[in-house]
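Q: Given only this backbone (89 positions), what sequence would you predict?
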């Protein structure tokens, strides 16, 4: 997981419950935010990074907006590639 404002990632070991997962999945990749709870109810959240595994099951509903194109474009203010939404041509 990559926490807000951090350059590096943090490896979480243990048993966690996925509380929420949201973001975008597009042709060029994904940008997902993950919130998990440990067995004591402590919440952790940040950017989901490659390598996350699910212990048992994850119920996931994905919506498709076929009239819109999602991509990432450089943002001079944040320094990151930020979400850009445009109509499908």
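A: Predicted residues:
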């Amino acid at each position: 997981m990559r926490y807000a404002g951090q350059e590096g990632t943090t490896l979480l070991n243990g048993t966690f419950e996925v509380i929420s997962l949201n973001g975008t999945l597009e042709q060029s990749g994904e940008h997902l935010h993950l919130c998990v709870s440990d067995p004591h109810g402590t919440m952790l959240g940040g950017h989901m990074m490659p390598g996350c595994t699910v212990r048992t099951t994850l119920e996931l509903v994905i919506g498709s907006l076929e009239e819109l194109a999602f991509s990432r474009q450089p943002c001079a203010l944040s320094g990151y590639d930020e979400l850009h939404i445009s109509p499908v041509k």
